[in-house]
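Support request from a user on the community tier.

User writes: "When I paste my C-alpha cells into the form, the page sometimes reloads and wipes my input. The last time it worked, I copied everything first. Here is what I submitted, just in case something in the input itself triggers the reload:"
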C-alpha cells in the first residue's frame, strides 16, 4: 500500500547540501506541516533543507487494506513498530526516486510532535544509521496504563491562574455528574447542548473531562479560566458548549462510534483508541486524592477495559512492560536527540524532562499557556525567553548534526 506524502517543500532546498527534514504526521489525516506550527518550515529555510511530511499508516488516505482497513482483523498491523519500519522504507524509496533529488549520502533529521514525537525519538534509537538527529516535541516515550499524573498536572496548570480556576473546574464537573446520574430531563438537555446523544453517562463524563484537559493541553488555560470565572453554572456550560469543538468531539468517546469499522478519511478516533488499548495505555484516570481531582471517579481502569473490550473485542489491552523493554521508556538510549516539553502540558509526564549525557538534550519550556508541542508553533515576538532559547538550542543542534559534528 502507499502512505501518502502530503507536502514536499523544495523552496529552500539546496541539492548540493543534501539535507532533508522528515516531518512525521500525527495520528490523523495529514495535511502537511500545520499552519500554526511553522517552526519546522523556518528550520528548513535556515538550513536549505527539503522538508517532507509523511502520513501515518491507517490515518487519512494511508490505508493498508483500503476501506477494510479498520476491521479488527486488519487493525493488528497498526503498531508503532510497523510505523517505524514504514519510515525506514520510505527513506529508501525517496533515495531511489529521482524526482526527489535526494541521494544515498543525504543527511536526514526527523521532527515529530506528541505521539509522532515519540516516533521521532524511537526511530533515532532503532535506526541510528538512517538519520543524523531527531527532534521530539512533547514526545510521549513512556507508555503508561494508569496515567493519573495527567490530571494532577491539569490542576497544577490551572493553579497558574489561581486556586479558584481549578475549584471552578471541580464544581462544574461535579454538577454535571450529579445531573447525569440524578436528573433524567437534565441529562437529556446536557446531551443535546453538547451534541452528545450517543454517549452513555460515563462516556459523557469522559468526554466532558477532556474539554478542560484539552483546552489546557493546547494552550487555552488563561482563556478557559477567564470564561468560567462567573459563578453562574448555566453561563459556564454555555461557554463550554460553544467552545468544546475546538479541541474534542463527542463521537471520539462513545464505544458505539469507536466500534464502527466504516472507513471515513477524516476520522481517526477508532484507530487512535486502538493504539491506546493495544500498545500505549495512557488511560487518564482520576487522581486518588479528592482535593486534586476534577475527573469523575467513574472514569477508572475498569471503565477503560470495558471501552477497549466493547470497541475491539476480548483481550485487547496493552502490555506496556514488553513495549518499554523494547524501547526503553524514560531510560531510552539514543544519540543526537532533542526532547522538548511545555511546562503546562499534562503529557510531559510521559516524556523525558531532564537531559542525560551529551547525547540526549531535554528542555522544559516555561511560559503562559505553555502547551503541547509549543516549540513547533510559529515564533512570535510575544514568545517567552524560555521558548525562544529552546528554539535557539534546537537550531544549534541542527547545525551540528547537518554539518556532521
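"...and here is what came back when it finally went through:"
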Amino acid at each position: 500500500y502507499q502512505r501518502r506524502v502530503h507536502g514536499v517543500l523544495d523552496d529552500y532546498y539546496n541539492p548540493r547540501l543534501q539535507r532533508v527534514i522528515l516531518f512525521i504526521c500525527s495520528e490523523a489525516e495529514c495535511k502537511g506541516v500545520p499552519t500554526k506550527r511553522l517552526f519546522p518550515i523556518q528550520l528548513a529555510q535556515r538550513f536549505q533543507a527539503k522538508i517532507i511530511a509523511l502520513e501515518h499508516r491507517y490515518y487519512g488516505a494511508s490505508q493498508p487494506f483500503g476501506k477494510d482497513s479498520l476491521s479488527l482483523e486488519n487493525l493488528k498491523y497498526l503498531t508503532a513498530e510497523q510505523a517505524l519500519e514504514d519510515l525506514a522504507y520510505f527513506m529508501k524509496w525517496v533515495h531511489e526516486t529521482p524526482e526527489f533529488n535526494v541521494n544515498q549520502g543525504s543527511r536526514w533529521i526527523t521532527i515529530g510532535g506528541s505521539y509522532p514525537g515519540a516516533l521521532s525519538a524511537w526511530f533515532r534509537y532503532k535506526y541510528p544509521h538512517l538519520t543524523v538527529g531527531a527532534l521530539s516535541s512533547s514526545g510521549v516515550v513512556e507508555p503508561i496504563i494508569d496515567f493519573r499524573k495527567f490530571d494532577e498536572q491539569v490542576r497544577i496548570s490551572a493553579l497558574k491562574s489561581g486556586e479558584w480556576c481549578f475549584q471552578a473546574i471541580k464544581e462544574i464537573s461535579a454538577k454535571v455528574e450529579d445531573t447525569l446520574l440524578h436528573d433524567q430531563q437534565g441529562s437529556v438537555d446536557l446531551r443535546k447542548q453538547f451534541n452528545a446523544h450517543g454517549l452513555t453517562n460515563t462516556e459523557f463524563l469522559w468526554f466532558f473531562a477532556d474539554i478542560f484537559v484539552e483546552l489546557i493541553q493546547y494552550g487555552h488555560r488563561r482563556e478557559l479560566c477567564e470564561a468560567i470565572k462567573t459563578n453562574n453554572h448555566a453561563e459556564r456550560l454555555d461557554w463550554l458548549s460553544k467552545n468544546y469543538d475546538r479541541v474534542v468531539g463527542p463521537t471520539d468517546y462513545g464505544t458505539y462510534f469507536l466500534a464502527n469499522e466504516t472507513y471515513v478519511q477524516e476520522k481517526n478516533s477508532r484507530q487512535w483508541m486502538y493504539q491506546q488499548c493495544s500498545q500505549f495505555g495512557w488511560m487518564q484516570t482520576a487522581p486518588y486524592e479528592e482535593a486534586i481531582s476534577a475527573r469523575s471517579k467513574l472514569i477508572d481502569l475498569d471503565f477503560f477495559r470495558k471501552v477497549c473490550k466493547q470497541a475491539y473485542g476480548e483481550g485487547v489491552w496493552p502490555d506496556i512492560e514488553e513495549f518499554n523493554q523494547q524501547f526503553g521508556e524514560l531510560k531510552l538510549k539514543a544519540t543526537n536527540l532533542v526532547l522538548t516539553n511545555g511546562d503546562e502540558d499534562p503529557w510531559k509526564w510521559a516524556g523525558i524532562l531532564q537531559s542525560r549525557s551529551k547525547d540526549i538534550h531535554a528542555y522544559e519550556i516555561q511560559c503562559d499557556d505553555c502547551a503541547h508541542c509549543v516549540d513547533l508553533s510559529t515564533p512570535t515576538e510575544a514568545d517567552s525567553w524560555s521558548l525562544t532559547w529552546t528554539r535557539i538550542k534546537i537550531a544549534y543542534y541542527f547545525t551540528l548534526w547537518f554539518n556532521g559534528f
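Agent notes: The reload is a front-end session timeout and is unrelated to the input. The chain has a mean pLDDT of 95. Residues 163-182 form the longest helix (20 residues). Escalated to web team.
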